[in-house]
Amino acid sequence: MNRFEQEIDQILNDLERNHLKRGLRQTQTATGAEIDYLGKTVLNFSSNDYLGLASEPFLKEVAIQAIEKWGTGSGAARLVCGNLKIHEALEEATAHFKGTEAALTFSSGFAVPLGIIPALVGKGDTVILDKLSHACLIDGAKLSGAKIRVFPHQNLRYLEKILKESSGKKLIVTESIFSMDGDLAPLREIIALKEKYGAWLMVDEAHATGVLGENGAGLMESLGCRSQVEIQMGTFSKALGSSGGYVAGSRQLIDLFINRARSFIFSTAPSPASSAVSLAAIQWIQSKAGNQRRELLQNYILSFSQKLNQLSQNSLFTGDQSPIFPWMVGDENKALELSQRILQQGALTVAIRYPTVPRQKARLRISLSAKHTPIQIDRLLGIMERSL
Ligand SMILES: Cc1ncc(COP(=O)(O)O)c(C=O)c1O
To answer: What are the pLDDT digits (tens) for 173-206?
Structure first.
């Protein structure tokens, strides 16, 4: 081993020793109710395919037709010559869905905050983040060069303290459904604070889009507060069963991002197939069939959380309004072992460890999908009961 290899080896060994080393596991299909995992078909309670759209035949057909029409790749950045009709159609539909004037799409949800936070704030300004914010929000804030302040998860008193102390432009960033905890942000209270202190608010609806709201547009729709939030963002990659990200807001805001968001400007336009699938999924989610699928998911969420409460009175499991149920374990190795035991009994519930969640806050992240059947969910509950 040369010096370079030894140094890399040292990093990997440290990760291994702390039970934090990751490796890729190949699967045949990653979505739907079941998954082929390590050569075995098991129930899948780890995907974000909350509505089961990623394996819908009608969306596969949409993708094929888009490829026939526009080709497999977009060929260039949007501002060069990659701006296809399907991109604009998706943006128009996204803006309508989200109740805003305009929207802009990116190749991934992760790329959205990397581009838009630095477009909004810089040196002398402050980005204020919830402690449990997704990595892309943290990285976007870091890239901006603005001062970063973090408030303990959902702690409004601390948020207010930071707002009082901050100078320059103030941008508050939060998720609506927290990705690893499944709880909901107190958006009304955050809006009241941002108005009191003249801040801007950016809400990431990655996990709420397709899941909450009368038309599935997210938590802001269900709270009726969309017009009070300056910047809405999210992804097409979870309940919508596609890939890519979006930001939605005023026309002026979107024009700013077209000119200043580097992950938009310097990246090839999203593929025609993924854009077409995202568009069709948005339309479907607002249809009667979409509403019924969302209702089914909500029923699953309700009955699962009631059964979990019966299973354990000591709040091992949290969450009750979103499809994400963290089974809090704490120790990284114990979480890995528990996940393994559950896998052996036929269900995939992947252990989530640092740095995705704080150290010693490891958990199994259980996610429900409308594609599960009640029998499959009961099977998981049985496995969980035996594993307690
Ligand atoms: C809260 C949140 N925002 C953004 C993203 C990134 O979205 P994408 O997977 O489309 O890159 C994720 C993905 O895990 C997420 O959980």
So the answer is: 999 999 999 999 999 999 999 999 999 999 999 9
Burial 114-130 (b: 16+ CB within 10 A, else e): bbbbbbbbeeebbbbbb
Annotated domain spans of the chain: 25-50+288-387, 72-285
Non-local (6+) Cβ contacts of 377 within 8 A are: 300, 303, 304, 368
144 beta partners:
none
Domain 25-50+288-387 classification at class level: alpha beta
Tell if the pTM clears 0.85, that is, is over it: yes
- Please say whether the beta carbons of 234 and 109 come within 8 A: yes
Choose which residue among 106, 137, 237, 357 to substitute to test ligand 1 binding: the one with the highest number of ligand atoms within 8 A of its C-beta: 237
Ligand 1 neighbour 233 (Cβ under 6 A): no
The Cα-based distances of 9 to 16, 24, 240, 333, 354 in angstroms read: 10, 18, 39, 21, 20
Q: Does domain 72-285 have CATH number 3.40.1740.10?
A: no
Q: Is there a catalytic annotation at residue 312?
A: no
- Residue 41 token pair: 């078909």
Phi then psi for residue 370, to 5 deg, are: -65, -15
Q: Is the CB of 134 under 6 A from ligand 1?
A: yes
Taking CA atoms only, the protein residue closest to ligand 1 atom 9 is 109
- pLDDT greater than 70 at residue 319: no
107 lines ligand 1 (CB under 6 A): no
Helix ranges (H only) for the chain are: 3-17, 57-70, 85-98, 111-120, 135-144, 156-165, 187-196, 219-223, 251-260, 262-265, 272-285, 288-311, 332-344, 374-387
Cα 327 from Cα 349, distance rounded (Å): 9
The residue assigned the tokens 């958006």 is 187
123 as an active site residue: the answer is no
Nearest by Cα to 34 from 24, 25, 26, 44: 44
Share of the chain above pLDDT 90, in %: 88
Q: Is 96 a catalytic residue?
A: no
Contacts of 3 (CB under 8 A, 6+ apart): none
